[in-house]
Every structure is written in C-alpha cells, then in structure tokens.
Design brief:
33% strand; single chain; alpha+beta; six-stranded antiparallel beta sheet
C-alpha cells in the first residue's frame, strides 16, 4: 500500500494526486496508458473511492490525466502546442518542440472547385483547384487530417514530393507567404476520420479552417485541418488592456 499520512495538513486526495504525478515523472506510469480503476486505487492507497475520485478530478483539471468515455482514465501525452501569434507550419512546430514530424500523402488531384473554395481563392465559376489530402504525424502518432486547395496555377505541386513541408516547398519555388485567416471550431469524428486518427467515431476534434495569402495579398491556399485535441493544442498570447472607470 502506498503511504498517505492522515495527520498531515495536506488533504489525502492532494497527497494521492501528488504521488501519482511523482510516479508519472519518474516513468513508473507512462503516457497514453490506462491507470487502475478507482476501486483498485482505493485499495492501493487505503482510502475511499470518493477520495480517489477527488484526486483524479484534480489531475484531469490539470490535464495530467484524461478520461475516455466507457474506456477509462489515461495518462495524457504531452500536447504539441502551436502559437497563433506566429505563422508557423506543422513541421516547423514539431521540430521547434523537439519532435519528429511525418506525413502520409492520401491524395493529390485536380478537382472542380466548390463555391466556398472559389470564394476563398478568388476563382471563377467552373474553375478547378489542386486538392491535396495528407495525414500529419508527430513522433509516429497521427495528429492532423489535412486538406488544402490551391489555385490551378500551382499544378506544379502535383509533380513534387508532397510528403515534405508544403510551406518549405512553396518557399523553394519563390512563393513567400504573408498573412492568413484562421477559424477554429469543434467537430465530431466521422468513421473515416476516426480510422485515420486512431480514435473513436464521434470523438470531439478541433477543426481549423485557413486561407493563406502571399505577400502581394493573393490567396495561395484554402485549408482545413481535423485535429486530435488529445495531442495538439493552439495557444495565443493575449495582452491585458486596462480600462479605467
């Protein structure tokens, strides 16, 4: 039985939470593994399930643990964080964080542009676009299902190795990216998305929609990313604005 001391000023559930965090830090409990049940932990620590539940809720709030409905409670893996205050692609985000990016090309083809893509890319009725679908990995774990549409003048992309960073590829061809817009929301995994991202169907996901322009203000691509929120997050630096009165 693990040692928890009832005569300490620190409540039992906090002691247990700290012990679990310590075991994670020491490598005794590994990321993405399921922890024992509340009953098993209660026996292990010699406390009630209510105390165990409070300890686990504290660790879930701190995003150290994650609950998966009808499966159990798991140790969270370190999320890959991308700042919205800078223009950085997925590959560079991985590398800056000390991780290894990877890409699986799913398809690359010329398609009829939908009305939303015609509007975003400033195309005419009947125009076609280059559609590139890829699965993005971080340290061999699938993180993002990505779909980008480019104007037809970027058809040269179809002859390139699309398993590498598109931003670096564009840069090598003299395309200098400037500003962009990003809209972030929530969606729920379809059967196909769940299979690619190795999650359950209808799991909650982040959906990010982008339009990226070159330095001349011309649209380069319109993109959509379906993101596993357990492995990836966005951060933004918010400056405090003081108001008097």
């Amino acid at each position: 039985m693990a040692e928890v001391t009832r005569d300490k000023t620190s409540p039992l559930y906090i002691q247990i939470a700290e012990d679990i965090k310590s075991r994670i830090g020491q490598g005794a409990l590994l990321p993405n593994t399921r922890i024992p049940t509340e009953m098993e932990l209660g026996t292990h620590y010699g406390v009630s399930r209510i105390t165990i539940r409070k300890a686990l809720e504290l660790l879930v709030d701190e995003e150290i643990l994650i609950r998966k409905q009808q499966i159990g409670t798991f140790i969270s893996d370190e999320k890959l964080s991308r700042s919205l205050n800078s223009f950085m692609g997925f590959s560079q985000t991985c590398e800056v964080a000390g991780h290894r990016p990877g890409t699986q090309l799913l398809s690359a083809e010329l398609v009829k542009a939908s009305s939303s893509h015609r509007e975003a890319l400033k195309l005419l009725e009947g125009d076609k676009a280059i559609r590139i679908r890829r699965l993005r990995y971080c340290d061999d774990l699938p993180v993002i299902l990505e779909e980008n549409h480019f104007p037809k003048k970027y058809a040269w992309l179809l002859a390139e190795d699309l398993n590498e960073s598109l931003h670096q590829l564009l840069q090598r061809h003299g395309v200098v990216l400037g500003n962009g817009t990003k809209t972030i929301g929530v969606c729920y995994a379809t059967k196909e998305e769940a299979e690619w991202l190795e999650i359950k169907e209808k799991d909650a996901l982040i959906v990010s929609r982008d339009v990226v322009y070159n330095v001349a203000g011309e649209p380069v691509y319109s993109g959509k990313e379906i993101i596993n929120a357990d492995r990836y997050e966005y951060k933004i630096l918010a400056n405090r604005v003081w108001k008097e009165g």
